[in-house]
């Protein structure tokens, strides 16, 4: 292709690149301005702006080689944004210093954007892209996948991630527990692969014929959208008589191995009267609020404090619902904007 460049260009890629570690910060700023075509008087005016922005007044006359990496980045960012570029190339650079300084950098970027500076931002942060950009280009392994408005491109990328999670889940869905029981060698291999979710009790001398599935409107599913209404269904046979039966459904985030939820029959003492025979239960989730990702279900079956069974019984994938989602859960809400001078706006997240 062809790139036509019109105007002064500055890169925020490797902050501090080109600084001479033996020279003070002051001289490095003046040298950077001179290389950018500034005369001595203009360079000195930029020096004051850089020092004020980077908050390095006490260290500006110290050799850059004595600066910490954070101080070098502050100085480099200050130089880059103070040289009045027409085009600014930014590569994952908005993480300089502490939270207050990061906010200062974002405000400066917004100020430059409003003043007409053209920005090309390379980032993995979808939030940053939505906040800073009008159009977006998505590259996958060097190939163009999507070019359009930032909202359209971000949504295409989220759909792509959802598809990857689905493929991953379908390729690694665990063998049904009752089949594991019939194959001791496979059971041993499976147990060794599940050390991230210990302890495992699956000797099957107390509980057998364990089944667990997830269904929506009676149809078994392996993946579904956030805010879906669904059922967790499980059943098993007790091989021994018990006195205080309880069962928990423990949900772990597969990648972080962090437990995000536990649902137990202890609430309500639902299985207190069951001492033997066949057990069958359904848990209805009216609104699945966990964020998109891959999850693992571990099913502990207890007699009092003692395990009768505990192992992974299901893996599932939650996909997005075309809205950006942050943190662990995505609450079901209605958002109403009630500005007096304009018509009310409403957004329903469900």
Write the layout of secondary structure elements.
Layout: E1 9-12, H1 25-35, H2 40-54, H3 69-82, E2 87-91, H4 99-114, E3 118-122, H5 126-132, E4 135-140, E5 143-149, H6 150-172, H7 177-181, H8 184-193, E6 207-216, E7 219-220, E8 223-225, E9 230-238, E10 245-253, E11 258-264, E12 277-285, E13 293-303, E14 306-319, E15 333-337, E16 345-349
Parallel strand pairs: 1-2, 2-3, 8-14
Antiparallel strand pairs: 4-5, 6-7, 6-9, 9-12, 10-11, 10-13, 13-14, 15-16
Helix pairs in contact: 1-2, 2-3
Describe this structure as you would to a colleague.
With 350 residues, this protein is α+β, with helices and mostly antiparallel strands. The protein contains eight helices and 16 strands. The chain has helices at residues 25-35, 40-54, 69-82, 99-114, 126-132, 150-172, 177-181, 184-193; strands at residues 9-12, 87-91, 118-122, 135-140, 143-149, 207-216, 219-220, 223-225, 230-238, 245-253, 258-264, 277-285, 293-303, 306-319, 333-337, 345-349. The strands form five sheets. A five-stranded mixed β-sheet has the order 8-14-13-10-11. A four-stranded antiparallel β-sheet has the order 7-6-9-12. A three-stranded parallel β-sheet has the order 1-2-3, with helices on one face. It is elongated and about 90 Å long.
